[in-house]
Amino acid sequence: MESPAENPSKAAEYLKELNKIIETQQELLEKQKRRIDELEQQVAKLYHENACLQDEHHRHLATCRLQQGVPPAPPGVLSAIQENARHENLQILSGCTCQSSCLSSELSQPGNEVGMFASAQILA
């Protein structure tokens, strides 16, 4: 059997190991919290960017409608899909080639690898 002198030293070693584990876990939690904060900031930035792009797109569609002499649609009547189809039909009828140039400029924004691929596919 172990002597009473060895027991406290083993207990102390065990506590030191547990403290190391706790410290490591706390560091990991802090890193994860920082990463979550970074990702939340990135999501907020993307929401804002998306809203700006949607607004820009709606203004572009309205400009194209005005150039074609088509009255603007009442708010909320047409869905985005219907509006895009209408825009494409107007482009076909008028010979407008702005779609490829608009898409290539919007999709090829810095850091948008997917957009760059998509714009390359559209222009090909």
Automatic annotation (TrEMBL):
Provide the coiled-coil residue spans.
11-56
Tell me which domain of life the UniProt entry assigns to the organism this sequence originates from.
Answer: Eukaryota
* Source organism of this protein record: Willisornis vidua
Question: Which terms are listed as keywords in the entry?
Answer: Coiled coil
Could you confirm whether the keyword Coiled coil appears in this record? yes
Q: What name appears for this protein in its UniProt entry?
A: IQ motif and SEC7 domain-containing protein 3-like protein
